Amino acid sequence: MRPTAIRQLKVLVAVKRTIDYAVKIRVNPSQTGVDTNVKHSMNPFDEIAVEEAVKLRERGVNVESIRVITLGQTKASEILRTALAMGADHATHVELPDGADMPEPLGVAKALAAYVKREPVDIVILGKQAIDDDAGQTGQMLAGLLGWSQGTFASKLDVDEASKTAVVVREIDGGGEEIRCKLPLVLTTDLRCNVTVPRYASLPNIMKARKKPIEKLTAQDLGVDLSPRLETIKVSEPPKRVGGGKVENVDQLVEKLKAAGVV
């Protein structure tokens, strides 16, 4: 009897367009949010997620396809092109109206869950958090909605295709935790997931990525409501720190602390 062929794995990577990590964030004049008229790029943690998906294939895992997906306005397609140039095979853009706010983590998780039910995959990889809101909730919510295993804050991933399991090393306080998960799996990547910097997209790959089609969808196509559940009342910068002072002895320190009303 011939051995049963191992089915190829399908991987989905969720990416987000955020303000570039090198940009100094400023609150907009109306104090409704931050100034977004600045350079944007792929969320660094999501860039690590794309790199991990590509490395799975390079390590010999039987990966059939790597899909990337993003929710965002028209310009969000730029980061999909970047992911395609890095080695992804297909891209999907869930378009939001220009000027619309990014949906909250629960809305993103619902959209991703709806897409996975439409296009079944074995592993969903996304960054542990986005550097704009630092919520760090989407991956966990997605796993809950799908009823899948989850490996969060991952620094290492090993997939056993035969047993349909994955061993994930998680970043925890004081070290790493190794867990074994059954596929399908939701994985969120931490900084140490890739020892090397995510690959630089070469010019030939960038040119090829420009010619690849990007699937366009809307929230209505996925049957999800992205209406916000939270309201931002006001955004303001933290108070500027004032300079400190020197004291000659402990008694002077205590006097200053009493004068400041902290003791």
Automatic annotation (TrEMBL):
Entry GO CC: mitochondrial matrix
Electron transfer flavoprotein alpha/beta-subunit N-terminal domain span: 32-226
Cofactor dependency: FAD; AMP
Keyword Ribosomal protein attached: no
Cell compartments where the protein resides: Mitochondrion matrix
Keywords, in A-Z order: Electron transport, Mitochondrion, Transport
Main location class: mitochondrion
Top-level lineage group: Eukaryota
GO molecular function, one term: electron transfer activity
CDD domains per UniProt: ETF_beta (cd01714)
Assembly behavior: Heterodimer of an alpha and a beta subunit.
Annotated protein name in UniProt: Probable electron transfer flavoprotein subunit beta
Organism: Exidia glandulosa HHB12029
